[in-house]
Amino acid sequence: MGGNSNSAKAASRLLDILNVRVVGGGDRVLVLSHGFGTDQSAWNRVLPFFQRDFRVVLYDLVCAGSVNPDHFDFRRYTTLDAYVDDLLAILDALHVDRCFFVGHSVSAMIGILAAIRRPDLFLKLILIGASPRFLNDRDYHGGFEKGEVEKVCAAMEANYEAWVRGFAPLAVGADVPAAVREFSRTLFNMRPDISLFVSRTVFNSDLRGVLGLVRVPCVVVQTAKDVSVPASVAAYLKAHLGGRTTVEILPVEGHLPHLSAPGALVQVLRRALACSNR
Amino acid sequence: MAADSVAGAHLHDLPEPILTQIFSLVEDVRSRNAMALACRRWRCLERSTRAALALRGHVRSPFLLPTCFAAVEHLDLSLLSPWGHHPFLLHYQQQQQYNYLVDQVALVAARLAQAFPGVSSLAVYARDPSVVAALAPLWPGLRAARLVRWHQRPPNLPLGADLAPLLAACPSLASLDLSQFYCWTEDIPPALQEHPVVAASLARLDLLCPASNEGFRSSELADIAAACPNLTHLLAPCVFNPRCIEFVGDDALVALATSCPRLSLLHLVDPATLSPARGDSDAKEDAAITGLGLEGFFARLPQLEDLALDLCHNVKDSAPALEALSYKCPKIKSLKLGQFQGVCKGTWLHLDGISVCGRLESLCIKNSADLTDSSLATIARGCRRLSRLEIHRCDKVTETGIKKLSSMLRSTLVDVSISGCQLLDATRSLRALEPIRDRIERLHIDCIWASPDLDQLPQTPERTAADDSDADDVYDEIPGESRNKKCKYAESNHDDIESSCFWFRTWARLRSLSLWIPAGEVLTPLGDAGLLSCPQLEDICIKVEGDCRTCPRPRQREFGLSFLALYPRLAKMKLDCGEAVGYALTAPTGHMDLSLWERFYLQGIDGLSLYELDYSPPQDKEVNQRSLSLPATGLIQMCSSLRKLFIHGTTHEHFMRFFLGMPLLRDVQLREDYYPAPENDMSTEMRVDSCSRFEEALNSRRIPD
Q1: Number of domains in chain B
Q2: Which entry of A60, A226, A228, A258 is annotated as an active-site residue?
Q3: Which of A223, B184, B299, B671 has the greatest number of CB atoms lying within 10 Å of its CB?
């Protein structure tokens, strides 16, 4: 009993810490998960279209700018698994047993890992700007060369050095090579030590091997011109994801369609969410 | 105080009542704080005589309210932290535990009444009517109230519900200031009509809120005027557009004047003029206000001292009406006219139009297309007491006109603002103000650097001829030291290259400078333009406006704030980039992000020894986001002498923590005072508890002085 109440308290603390918010009404649950460097307000332009029909769950990743920085445990959040733990804990605390999941960028990867762990929990995964591995490999084109990634990390380290010494961290997303620029623009939006740490986590992650373990149907949403996610990645995902996968291409530019072209994205989301009426 | 130590007697030996009286006359807050530190007795005295207090911090814990300030009459609760939040609510108690909220409200309200029994003037952030309903009954003798709200008006609120609790509880209310309170124009007349007693006692009503872009219609204006016959000060936006129904025209103005004959300050403006962006005023349409109508209007307002009629539609041939103004309203001291044509023709030697108003001390003329140099000269001849002049978008005015006016009004003119005039770029404006360079105290210019089309104007020979006659005029009208002035003018005008004479161009009394600069331009040519030496400059306000998405990329890496290090006494800066619009996170390839723009603008700020900074970050209009980015935070953090920092936008908690590294920082607040202010759930960057955590950390540091 004591254990139960403790875990219940810990769960509600987590809801508080990660600013979990449930809006809207409906019998279906939709989880919106943002990518690194933004926070749940990135969904503001998309949210009104789904409030009527869904109970929408929004939350902030632990590295988001609106979360108390003291909660970022550098020992715990070394890989994406810790973020998956957070997501599943939130859904358990809210007593959600089936939901639709929309994840952007790195959250898409978190969604994939969560769906492997708990396939019954997710009715459908909608992955926006997803990529199982960012670094190029022998036969795989992830979009980023090692040298470019090094430049990003160097800029972040310079920021970190400056910040630690009390100087102004001045490098921003636009100072790095063009290929990585769009992606890392949001990464530079975080506190220098957190962003350095998180970007290492992201660039070292490689989920190609586990894609086949996903059983849940997926929709891969990609913009026509996203410098961080080449078109071949969408095809790769379709080929390797274990469940039934469709690919939707948005005729817009950029890595953040929910901010730059919400109208087009909403149409795609509506189509994806309407198809499965289970 | 030191002078009192005569023959061994010390200030401290004075009897208590006299000391109390002395203390109650000191108004400056820092002096009072210093006095309170001297000894316990002085602290008690200081606390018991303080008359004005602004509370910061959170009212969550009622026992933390100070009770020693028993004499406070002006209480400002609008800056309670976190800014804009309901003062009594804890953030997570909005939906649940409603009973607890009611108790909490009652407790805090009772405590406030106990702590400040003598409040006669109150300012409060009234997010919804419950705040006012809780506070107003505590002080039934309230004489002045200022309500602040930049958030959206709560939906489903009946008309007038925001004001009703205040008007019901405070029957002797004399002044109501809603200039920072967003509500609908339909809210005001019903509230006033339902409380006729209070409305009749109202003397001051300020309804000029820049947030709303609607104005009062003629029927609404008439209702307000009828309800408040004793008004002496009225400021209201009105619908002057003759295409709208119920527009305000001659009849409406006359009705207003008939209902409120005691008006001494009247500002009626078109709501479009209140927006912070400088819009295009290409309105060629005429207003429904005519000269004759204005004459009738002025005839009914004999007490008028301060008039502003800032329209967006033309009022033609206004000269006869302005002459009538000076006869019918002999006390007129301050005048602001927007889009009035024919203000002063100045073609003959006699005074006409506005120049007849000899007692005028402050004049502002906006969008007057036919105001010429000779008009200005005539105004200078007629309005000999003019101390403040503002000219906006008067495209026929040239450097010669301003120069002549400033030389003729040398003894009185101390505050000049020149903006938006095509023929007056920064260099020319500063040259035109040469005659009062050593006297001017407040100045505004637009930072337009190179205007190639102005080189077509006739050059030096004609100017020197005109200036000789100027010098003659000056010689005749100002006795005494003008001879030296004439020599100086002769030198400066006959020198071929002016740039070599900058060593004596000191703006000796300039205390406050305001600059407007288009997005993408840099600040550094300010020195070449003529503002190199300003030994007394304390206060600078820089407004950047423009579209960062379409303006060309700046050629330099820095905006040039480090240039301001030339001004030795600069302590207070307001940097308003709020009207610079750009992309926050969604910039297409080839465009600059707002984080890059902020880095451009703020680079070099660490070189200035600023005491206070008011910064508005540039905004991304698509997502209604005004937020500090990483480089901006880092650069502001380097400003080690800063004590007060106000950010008119939001930022992440991670970034706010940077500011804790600034050793002298005492007062920080995020004030989203623009409409619509972000609701807590819409913008998640700076949440309530983030603010509290930050403030606790800030307050727990040791203060060196």
Answers
A1: 2
A2: A226
A3: A223
Rounded Cα distance, A113 and A127, in Å: 12
> Do the Cβ atoms of A69 and B684 come within 8 Å?
no
How far is the alpha carbon of A190 from chain B, nearest alpha carbon, in Å?
A: 7
User: 3-state secondary structure string, B379-408?
Assistant: HHHHCCCCCEEEEECCCCCCHHHHHHHHHH
Residues of A within an 8 Å Cβ radius of B? 16, 19, 21, 23, 38-41, 44-45, 60, 64-69, 159, 162-163, 166-174, 178, 185-186, 188-192, 194, 227, 253-254, 256, 259-260
Structure tokens at B222: 């008439």
Could A172 and B631 be called an inter-chain contact, meaning their C-beta atoms sit closer than 8 Å?
yes
Domain that holds residue B38: 1-50
Directed axis angle between helix B482-494 and helix B460-477, to 10°?
Answer: 180
pLDDT of residue B353: 83
The conformational region for residue B556 under phi > 0 = left, psi -120 to 50 = alpha, else beta, is beta
Q: What is the pLDDT of residue B74?
A: 87
DSSP conformation letters of B70-87: TT--EEEETTPSSTTS-S
**Position B177 in a domain:** no
- In a domain? residue B117: no
Q: Which of A170-184, A248-262, B380-394, B404-418 has the lowest mean pLDDT?
A: A170-184
CA angle A72, A77, A78 (to 5 degrees): 135
Q: Which of B558, B586, B628 to mutate to test the interface with A (most CBs of A within 10 A)?
A: B586
pLDDT value at residue B285? 83
DSSP-assigned beta bridge partners for residue A222:
A249
Q: Tell me which of A34, A104, A255, A258 is the catalytic residue.
A: A255
Token pair for B177: 């200031």
Residue B381 lies in a domain: no
Asked if B684 lies within 8 A of A253 by C-beta distance, the reply is no
Its ipTM equals: 0.86
Is A228 among the catalytic positions? no
Length of chain A: 278
Tokens of B562: 């480090």
- What is the token pair recorded at B241? 């557009």
Which tokens is B455 given?
């080189």
Task: Classify B45 as helix, strand or coil.
Answer: helix
Q: End-to-end alpha-carbon separation of chain A, Å?
A: 36
Task: Specify whether the CB–CB gap between A250 and A224 falls below 8 A.
Answer: yes
Q: Which of A16, A168, A186 sits opposite B635 (nearest CB)?
A: A168
Of A67, A172, A260, the CB nearest to B595: A172
Query: Is A105 a residue of the active site?
Result: yes
**pLDDT of B383-427, one tens digit each?**
999 999 999 999 999 999 999 999 999 999 999 999 999 899 899
DSSP state of B286: B
Q: Tell me how far the alpha carbon of residue B80 is from its chain's centroid.
A: 21
Tell me the β-bridge partners of B236. B268
Residue B635's domain is classified under what CATH number? 3.80.10
As a whole number of angstroms, the distance between CA B594 and CA B597 comes to 5
The alpha carbon of residue A166 is apart from the nearest alpha carbon of chain B, in Å, by 7
B585:A259 CB<8 A? yes
Of B50, B66, B85, the domain-final residue: B50
Place of tokens 């008939």: B258
**Per residue in A99-113, pLDDT tens?**
999 999 889 999 999
Helix H or strand E segment including A253? strand A245-253
Best mutation target among B553, B654, B683 (most A Cβ atoms within 10 Å) is B654
Question: pTM score, two decimals?
Answer: 0.85
Question: Is B271 part of any domain?
Answer: no
Q: DSSP letter for B248, please.
A: -
Phi, psi of A184 (to 5 degrees): -80, -10
Tell me the CATH number at B46.
1.20.1280.50
Give the number of A-B residue pairs with CB atoms closer than 8 Å: 108
